[in-house]
User: Fold this.
Amino acid sequence: MFKGIYNWIDERLDITPMWRDVADHEVPEHVNPAHHFSAFVYCFGGLTFFITVIQILSGMFLTMYYVPDIINAYASVDYLQHKVAFGAIVRGMHHWGASLVIVMMFLHTLRVFFTGSYKAPREMNWVVGMLIFFIMLGLGLTGYLLPWDNKAYFATKVTLSIAESVPYIGPYIATLINGGEVVGAQTLTRFFAIHVFFLPGALLALLAAHFFMIRKQGISGPL
Amino acid sequence: MAHGHNSKEKVVYVGDSRIVKRNASNIPADYTAYPGKSEAFIPNFLLKEWMVGVVALVGFLVLTIAHPAPLGFQADPTNAAFIPMPDWYFLFMYQLLKYPYVSGDFVVLGTVGIPGLAFGALLLAPFLDTGKERRFYRRPIATSLMLLSLIACIYLTKVSWDHYQHQLEVTNTIPEHILREEQAREAHEAGLPRPNPSAEPAPIVAADDPAMDLMNTATCLACHATDLTGQGNAPGLRGIGDKLSHEEIAEIITNGTDNGMPAFADRLSAEEIDQIAGWLALQKTSAE
Assistant:
């Protein structure tokens, strides 16, 4: 029956080339841990994506309760943590996932670096991957402020003072992300918008480019 | 139908759409066309990846249950004693900026120079390391630079973390999220509801009592705040009677605590301490 449905859609939308690319493409022997155990180093990219998906899902659930203003932000996180059913687990996954995704991405970067996979013809994919790395750091930085506890507040003050010390453009950058003179109501809503809309949007676009290129070029060959 | 199967047009569409009727030679080869022990991504390899993913997920869930996400006390911009601490993956940058030649007059080197060089080189690695050799042991420059940066980052992170622990020890500070957890556990063991820092503080009982003036002159309020809601490391005293008895409070005022409360034995008379402790013991949430 699935075959029938597939053929019916395929006849109308010609999805076979896409399906071949997404699902029926080859997994070469040298990256398959079932054949060579040491090939587990090739799993870190996939694990990064897996945790990224968890981050997106848990983040969507967090926004059901989180209130991005300085009066209620802390109380809403506290409520989420202690009163909402499974709230502690959802928030815990988002909190620890943020660290795990950095770890996995770091290991993935090291694998690509030490296997020389960034070399021609895959330079563009490396650059896109590094941009994803920076976006992830940005997500970590902006997400850190959102619980609005002292740790979040004072770390953000330090970050902003570092941004401000950049010559010429520093004060402008600081004002832009701070939304005013002090870390306060504007900063929280800005960080929230950046964390929830701007950076995830950029992240998804870059991930699409990353995956498109890896499918187009294939995984780098065995060493 | 405008375009039947018998059409003599060279391009044949599906129905009246612009989908070209499939030309079989355009379809990429499936995995069986590739050499060696290749296998299909879906479902064969994805199933294996999913099994690994599930094991990782269980570990992840165990971690979240064993260590709930930390939450300190609500941000208080006037808190001057708080030791700022970024998330762990920024510590190497944080530590770097503490060294004399990359801070103060040279801060540009620390904020733009070194990180710009390191991350710029990483971003442009394919254009800096253009040789064909891929094996890391045949690329001594790239490999050694990466290893050196790795060691530097790990070292800076470790130094920064140790410094933070040392600061906590010197200033006798317990990180707020741990303090909160302890307070919650103590309240739980005493059969009281979990202290809720975002709730309205309990009202002051018998606010016109002379003990309040005495607390002001004895500098209690300098740390515990004039409205007794506490600040920094000094806990709020409203509702303190729920947790501590008259004798326990007197003991803390007389001898101080390990958490930074100074001893007042030589500054206040025993009667004064007794008067303050007695009044504080009246501070119960449930009092009318």
